[in-house]
DNA sequence: CGCCTATATGCCAATCGAGCTATATTGCTG
DNA sequence: CAGCAATATAGCTCGATTGGCATATAGGCG
């Protein structure tokens, strides 16, 4: 998991993931939707691939990329022990709102 | 949320958060537990503070740091739409295991 | 006030990462 | 095979970031 956070730290890569979450896409499709050159997009895809966050399928010259969510599940697991902390805060917020509503 | 991932990308900072998750701690306590110098730890704490991931309480010369989980909840929200993707995979895995068990 | 403790800040060196342009590679098609 | 389309790689630059050492600041204490 070590480097998954580092991979997700880049906004362009998160944007790519968000696009691939909708559907599988070839590289050119991503280039059209981002304000980055094709080589830059390919480089980000390589990083995402090596981190296990996307997978490729070859179809003639096209490479169809799709999300591979495994590492995201590990991030989720890292978050788990913190989750109760903000749930507690949210509960407190809810109670406050209930109080106000009660007035 | 933009930069929260970048802040979490550094392993030292994640380690600091993990230590603070157990309990509130003064800076010197963190320095003792990490292989970093005091100025470096203070610098990481500054980054965490500015990202809203920790809060400080002053007590004479000591500064007690604790986790402030708000930004983590935002990470969790970003993950949400992906969650069904790996839950689906886990479900498939479970079904496979059930099949094997059924043999 | 002088000194000690605890923490923060300034400055520097080294490294890393993102983006670009130019070029290589791979596969189809006439 | 020539040529086009789609993608990948190489090489470069610039800016950001990490970590350390030295030093400043702030708060007790004798």
From TrEMBL, chains A, B:
Pfam families reported in the protein's UniProt record: HTH_5
Q: Which domain of life is it from?
A: Bacteria
Q: Which GO terms describe its molecular function?
A: DNA binding; DNA-binding transcription factor activity
HTH arsR-type domain ranges (all copies): 1-87
Q: Which UniProt keywords apply?
A: DNA-binding, Transcription, Transcription regulation
Q: Does the keyword section mention Transcription regulation?
A: yes
Keyword Transcription in the entry? The reply is yes
- By its UniProt entry, which InterPro entries does this protein fall under? ArsR-like_HTH, HTH_ArsR_DNA-bd_dom, HTH_MetalResp_TranReg, WH-like_DNA-bd_sf, WH_DNA-bd_sf
Which CDD domains does its entry note? HTH_ARSR
Per its UniProt record, what Gene3D superfamilies does this chain match? Answer: Winged helix-like DNA-binding domain superfamily/Winged helix DNA-binding domain
Q: Write down the PANTHER family for this protein, in alphabetical order.
A: TRANSCRIPTIONAL REGULATOR, ARSR FAMILY, TRANSCRIPTIONAL REPRESSOR SDPR
Q: What is this protein called?
A: DNA-binding transcriptional regulator, ArsR family
Q: Which organism is it from?
A: Lentzea flaviverrucosa
């Amino acid at each position: 998991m070590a480097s998954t956070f580092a991979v997700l730290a880049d906004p362009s890569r998160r944007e790519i993931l968000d696009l691939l979450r909708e559907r599988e896409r070839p590289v050119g499709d991503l280039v059209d939707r981002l304000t980055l050159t094709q080589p830059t997009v390919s480089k980000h895809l390589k990083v995402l691939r090596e981190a296990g966050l996307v997978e490729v399928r070859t179809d003639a010259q096209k490479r169809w990329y799709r999300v591979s969510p495994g590492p995201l599940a590990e991030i989720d697991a890292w978050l788990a022990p913190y989750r109760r902390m903000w749930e507690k805060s949210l509960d407190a917020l809810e109670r406050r709102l209930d109080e106000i509503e009660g007035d």
